[in-house]
Amino acid sequence: VTAEKGGYDSFMLKEIHEQPQAVRETMGARIDQEHKRVILPELKMSNADLAKYDRIYIVACGTSMHAGLVGKDVIEKWTRVPVEVAVASEFRYRDPIYTDNTLMIVISQSGETADTLAALREAKKSNVTVLAITNVVGSSVAREADEVLFTWAGPEVAVASTKAYTSQVVALYLFALYLAQVKGTLAAAEVAEVVDHLQDIPAKIASLLEDAEQVRRFAESTKGVNSLFFIGRSLDYAVSLEGSLKLKEISYIHSEAYPAGELKHGTLALIEDNVPVVALATQPDIYEKMVSNIVEVKARGARVLGFAIEGDTDLAKSVDEVIYLPSTLPMLTPILTVIPLQLLSYFASVARGLDVDKPRNLAKSVTVE
Ligand code: AGP
């Protein structure tokens, strides 16, 4: 078993460390190096068919749904197509508004999640085209969808999803860029700039993995803690949700992710002396507002671990300590921000002596409703 874990003490840690490779493989041949653009040869539909979509539903569960939230912001920003993200167990019982120009994207690591599969089947009954992003060739989702983009993360064994998430986010970046090329909503030079930055992502993930000491210390300090908050705005909020889910799942610490601007509408009442708050402040557009929100929790006694982009000299003045992330385009930052968050949940679980790979009450693949 140790051999299967590649020398790591758990599958989760092994899979966390496989992320540079998983991300690289998922980009793989989908980047045209010469022209710095995206090619998706696996798509069967024509560019003309793809260009007609003016509305997208992204449907998934858990971590895959969280990848979808990043995908929403990116697709909307680069293509101006409105995207709605829905939890599959809710979506399948809704009466969704489909038009001839609606595309559905389902995301599932396993390709066997019952609710996601049911949502896919419902959409197909209504003649909606379904594009799947999945990690398992031959899975039900891969077989039944009209179009498939595989993530090439390799088998994911740990219940807590890590490399599948980062690979899904990469697949969504590639799809969003491709759609922008087809619709002409980004200039060739803009696409090339994103492509350049995307190709630097694996090395940046690797550097975050090498430098885990600070996050390990913070995780250990949460040993006696009952509750922890993740806050962020815009894309940082999407990543907060993933950080919070991961922590709950394997450390059993209660945690909540909150859009920071919403705190004062209720949740701020829970902040008191020494409550740990992980505050993500990586998005330049909303940075000043985010810092004000951090000051609000700090003033109520919170112990704040901030996340900032390297070169940021301000955040340190408002928080207890800062984790610095390598600089990239703001839209690509989520894929880096999530790495220390995964490590935080991993180290918190280890510090409590829990079984990292097999958390209580949970299954790797939820094949029943
Ligand atoms: C993530 O850590 C979870 N264990 C869980 O939320 C998972 O992402 C969800 O069950 C969806 O699985 P799928 O991607 O295989 O459909």
TrEMBL record:
**What name appears for this protein in its UniProt entry?**
Glutamine--fructose-6-phosphate aminotransferase [isomerizing]
- Residue ranges of the SIS domain? 46-185, 218-359
Would the keyword Cytoplasm be found if you checked this record's keyword annotation? Answer: yes
The portion of the full protein included here is 242 to 610 of 610
Chief localization class?
Answer: cytoplasm
| Keywords, ordered alphabetically | Aminotransferase, Cytoplasm, Glutamine amidotransferase, Repeat, Transferase
Classification lineage:
Bacteria, Bacillati, Bacillota, Bacilli, Bacillales
List, from the UniProt record, the residues annotated as the active site of this protein: K364
Compartment list = Cytoplasm
- What EC number(s) does the entry state? 2.6.1.16
Protein purpose: Catalyzes the first step in hexosamine metabolism, converting fructose-6P into glucosamine-6P using glutamine as a nitrogen source.
